[in-house]
Design brief:
This protein is an alpha/beta fold. The protein is built from eleven helices and twelve strands. It has an eight-stranded mixed sheet, sandwiched between helices. α3 crosses α4, α3 packs parallel to α5 and α4 crosses α5.
Length: 347
Amino acid sequence: MNSEIILQAKNLKKYFILSKGVIRKKILGTVKAVDGVNLDIHEGETLGIVGETGCGKSTLGRLIMGLETPTEGAVLFKGRDLWSSDKAQWKNFRSQVQIVFQDPFSSLNPRMKIKDVIAEPLIIHQTARGGEMQERVNELLNLVGLASHHAERYPHEFSGGQRQRIGIARALALNPKVIVCDEPVSALDVSIQAQVLNLLDHLQKKLRLTYLFISHDLSVVKHIATRVAVMYLGRIVELAPSREVFTNPQHPYTEALLSSCPIPDPGLRERPRILLTGDVPSPLNPPTGCYFHPRCRFVQESCRKDEPAWVETASGHGALCPIAPFSNQPSPAAIHFKDKIETVIVN
């Protein structure tokens, strides 16, 4: 991409120590939630992060937001290391990078009126006060499709979709450059999901926003993402432009994810299915070599022993798989996505 890199993750790791006991703690093990992630997020794009529950998507988002301290590695905002910043730089970062949470109800204080919820960032950063603040709150409510009189209500008086719009309005209060969307539509009905996604798309074009969009729903990511990163057991196993991931996957795990995505077309019920054997390995004790090798149908002896190398093409399509099994043959799952996926994405 030609646009400027606004956020970077360099060899980012987050390990959680499991222990028991209060006075004499006994270490039980280490959970490798995020294990050596490298990402470049370009200004104006939507980078989608997909993967199974427990793969480290949300932890990665919290690391990039600065809500978790990395065990190793760095997060760079406009070239500056986040964890070597002073107080003023941290405050600037907080205003420039905001988050929309998964649960639109628990992310709002039930005791605060909506006007106070949205105004809170303005008060903390001292960017508006008095009548100017009220005007800004009304402007933000109108921007996300709500009316000014909604400002006097409490969160429990709104539907799930409306509450998520309030969360988006709060995230926009300080005119941020980047918004981390942590599964922002997974708790909503399908029709409401479409409305919120269309709202996010409209806001991105209008305000020139950059999104890090975390989701487990492939159809949602296909609709909104510019590029897609696929995570498995704390690692990025594939990264490519959205259409390439869905039509030409280069990692066996990505192909299995595509195969599992339901397509509501009776004519495709007999499409080839790829069923993964075994369970997801524990992040407490990940396999040696390639983390995916116990479930991979293309496994080779080297996969069990050696750390996989990142293989990348000239088009920026990379995969953590040196054998790149689909380079010379079309994936059975991707064939159907190439022809049919546009019919199942919400437009």
